[in-house]
Amino acid sequence: MPSDNSKPLKHMMRKCNHCFVTGEEKKLFHCSQCKAQTYCSRECQKADWKNHRSACKNNGLLESRLKQHENTPQGMLDRLFLVDGISMHELDQRLEKWVRFHNPTLMTATVHALRLPESVARSRTHLLYIRLAPRPQTEHQGASGKFFRVLDAEVIEWDEAARRPAPWPESLEQLRFMQDDAENMRRGGVAAAMIECPPLAVQTVPFGSMMNMREKVQNDWKEFLIGQVEAGKKPRMIPVR
């Protein structure tokens, strides 16, 4: 992959989840409850609530349950086996910050791993699966971009993913709803990276507005992903060639 000075493509930048204005055109903010989707205004957030509601409430419920769990006897026991003696809730919060930090890198890796410039339709049949491991305080020094390292990343077929245990089937059902809605609204395809860091459940990181990609598929996407994550780099521009 080329350097961070490469020319960005607007359709691969972070966008408002409703009107798809880019972060270059307007300042975006995250949904305060799930912190997964971004919007350019409260009006857009309200207009998208019908589509966003289910995933948002599920994410909020999961966070609430992890928060309640951390001070239970089992929650205290969990700390003995987690990095830095943190709770499951704290591990989940670190993962949330890590995903937000590396969003451009994850998007780029997903586009090229799924070979979407050749066919956006592959977003409906394939997923990028990324396995992570938490890094200790001595390595990350509080830098969110270094909270985790990539153990492996591979492309998996949708049907294979659907046969995996819960919450995989439920997550894919929500993703399919997002894909169908985006296509019905002529907003392009929705691709996704499935990120897993045991003992946390798998998390879906969707990327929308996938259309009209003319760049050449880069086969070194895995090396790019691992290298960016290991270094804790946050590209200011999407590296494409």
Report the biggest beta sheet as strand number plus sense, adding barrel if it closes.
4 strands, mixed
Unreliable stretches (pLDDT < 50, length at least 5) are: 2-12, 237-241
Q: Round the Cα radius of gyration to an integer and report it.
A: 18 Å
Q: Span from first to last CA?
A: 7 Å
**Strand sequence of the main sheet, in spatial order?**
4-3-5-6
Computed structural class: alpha+beta
Residue share in β-strands: 15-25%
Task: List SSEs in N-to-C order.
Answer: EEHHHHHEHEHHEEH
- Strand segment tally: 6
How many helices? The count is 9
Can you offer a commentary on this structure?
This protein has helices at 42-47, 49-69, 73-78, 88-101, 103-113, 137-140, 158-162, 168-184, 221-231, and strands at 29-30, 38-39, 126-134, 148-157, 189-196, 203-210. With 241 residues, it is an alpha+beta fold. The longest helix is centred in the first third of the chain and has 21 residues, at 49-69.
List the helices and strands and how they pair.
Layout: E1 29-30, E2 38-39, H1 42-47, H2 49-69, H3 73-78, H4 88-101, H5 103-113, E3 126-134, H6 137-140, E4 148-157, H7 158-162, H8 168-184, E5 189-196, E6 203-210, H9 221-231
Parallel strand pairs: 3-5
Antiparallel strand pairs: 1-2, 3-4, 5-6
Helix pairs in contact: 2-4, 5-9
